Amino acid sequence: MKMLNKVPEITIFFWIIKVLATTVGETGADFLSTTMKLGLVGTSYVMSALFLIALLVQLKSQRYIPALYWLVVVLVSVVGTLLSDNLVDRMGVSLATTSIIFASALLVVFVLWYLSEKTLSVHIIETTKRELFYWAAILCTFSLGTSAGDLIAERLGVGYALSALIFAGVIAATYIAYRFFKLNAILAFWIAYIFTRPLGASLGDLLTQPVKESGLGLGTVATSSIFLITIIGLVIYLTRRQKQKSMSLNAASH
């Protein structure tokens, strides 16, 4: 069944909220698991349930609702982080292996999505099937970004600040390739989307980890709160702008 487009325009606001959401995914998971003492398993159950509820509401919606869409993104960022953490911390799977697992899972989603829809475009998401592929791909990018980011920043000893610069550099190079060298727009989008996850995770770790561990020592509570408030402010702005745009279109049609 066709619906109105269910996803936002790809603007600077999209990317700002995306990076903020990925950082909240990193700091939020740590806050619930460690600070609130829910543990990795308890946090996984709670956040997975909240994510599934929000996703079902999103799937039932017939149009793009900024608050609902970005709530799902924040929750999927936490769940994606927890998937990686459970494999690494609870099951002892190496970060290199989990990176390969999630990269393979993402590739499978892309292949199935393309075979079914003949496109991987994120500009028009107007059927439930296409939206399911969209969210499956996003979940895989968050888990992949978590594993790959931790692998580079921690296991390879690159550090959070330098890792953030590396990931930001990859995103900048992707934009330049798209803007000036005609890199395919869909490919450019997904490369940037994948690398904003480790960028956000590195920023989150940089802000929250103790100074002795190369962090700034702000803690998970302060960092999560600041970023969530910023996300809420931007979503309110986008919601108002969307309403004004709808009112203008309605007025023009009459």
From TrEMBL:
Pfam families: DUF347 (PF03988). This is Membrane protein.
